[in-house]
Amino acid sequence: MIQFRRLALCVLLVFGVWQGALGLYIEAKARLAQVLVQRAWNATLAGASRARPWPWADTEPVARLIVPGEDVDLVILAGASGRTLAFGPGHLTGTTLPGEEGNAVVSGHRDTHFSFLAHLEPGDELAVERRDGKWRRYVVTETEVVDRSDVQALRRTPDTRLTLVTCYPFASLRPGGPLRYVVTALGVRS
Prior knowledge:
By secondary structure, the chain is α+β, with helices and mostly antiparallel strands. It is about 25% helix and about 30% strand. The relative contact order is 0.13.
């Protein structure tokens, strides 16, 4: 009986260490990727076309998102596939590019790059740097929780807006889920 308890304790200990290491790995990968993505963004601003963060990358930087009140500085990647979102927030293909007129939709993981969305409130400011180095300011006007089948946030709009989307709830242990957290920010005329 004592041998079984020791074995069970060892198994639980190994499992706990493994889960902790996995969590640290995911966070480290997300942060390291942003360093490489930032280098590609700098190359883009310097005039490089299709500057990829690493040679085999199937994405490239399209914009940079700054949230001064949250100390957030992220490069937005082209596309919103799971593969892209593992390395940074992704621009939803088919929507306006961030910083341009229309509705630019960007998604990211709630537990890494977009965890700050939980703290945004109406009135908070965001800024987007475009590939040409020009900046567009936005002000958060709304935050809401919607069902993942609700695609109203993705619609085309005549105004200049930035729509940020992540899974909800933020502290969920289950990936994905049926809900999405949507932050809407309208462009500010300079």
